[in-house]
Amino acid sequence: MRRSGRRRAVSLPARRAVAGAARAACRTGLSLLEVTLAIAILGGSLAVIGELVRMGSRHAEEAREMTRAQLLGESQMESIVAGIIPAQSLSSTAFEHDPDWTYAIEVAPLNGTDLLEVTVHVQQAEITREVPLVFSLTRWMLDPAREAEMGDLDASQFINTTRGSTVRSGGMVGRR
User: Fold this and answer.
1) Stated pTM of the model
2) Residue 150 lies in a domain
3) C-alpha dihedral sign at 16, 17, 20, 26
4) CB of 137 closer than 8 Å to CB of 165
5) Residue 174 phi/psi, 5° resolution?
6) What is the band of 98 on the pLDDT scale with cuts at 50, 70, 90?
7) Measuring CA to CA, how many Å separate 36 from each of 25, 33, 40, 53, 119?
8) Is residue 96 in a domain?
């Protein structure tokens, strides 16, 4: 078979389409739309990461402040138990060594016992947040007046009653 020397006529739009497809297949750069989309995704992720860092630092500061409040509250409670501070109710008072914090003491007798329920509330003096940071610690302790009466008792009577107790099933059961 012999080929004729004529070429088939291809329309101009078809040639342009073929040339455009060849150029698209060979291009190595990015379009403006792709670059814009990538920058938008990067900006959004940076905003989210920045917010997470801000929240993390705020929570770390709050944890430090709560730890400080716990230490101050435990210190006041131990001072009450040791008798350095009297076991009586006290309104909001600033700490001598840390005036940025205040404490209040509530003392209430427990019904039918010689025990007192002592609660120490610690909070920041200047409230700089929506929800104030407050720490409360409650402890039952023997009424100091009753403890003084027990101190007047003969020590041997006290020792005999404590030696006469036995531990059974995880609880104290007294023997006479």
Assistant:
1) 0.60
2) yes
3) negative
4) no
5) -85, 145
6) confident
7) 22, 5, 6, 26, 60
8) yes
Strand bridging mode 115-124 / 165-168:
unpaired
Q: How many domains does the chain have?
A: 1
In terms of C-beta distances under 8 Å and separation of at least 24 residues, what long-range contacts does 145-152 make, across chains too? 146/114
**Concatenated DSSP letters of 22-48:** HHHHH--S--HHHHHHHHHHHHHHHHH
Q: Which residue has the tokens 């006529």?
A: 9
C-alpha 13: how far from its chain's center?
69
pLDDT digits (tens, 9 = 90+) for 118-162: 999 999 888 777 888 899 999 998 888 777 666 655 444 444 333
User: For residue 119, what are the domain limits?
Assistant: 46-160
What CATH number corresponds to the domain at position 152? 3.30.1300
Q: What are residue 174's DSSP bridge partners? A: 165
Q: Domain for residue 32, yes or no?
A: no
Answer whether residue 151 is part of any domain.
yes
Nearest of 115, 117, 124, 122 to residue 89 by alpha carbon:
117
Amino acid sitting at position 46: L
Which segments within the chain are labelled E, that is strand?
A: 90-94, 101-109, 115-124, 134-142, 165-168, 171-174
Element (H, E) at 114: none
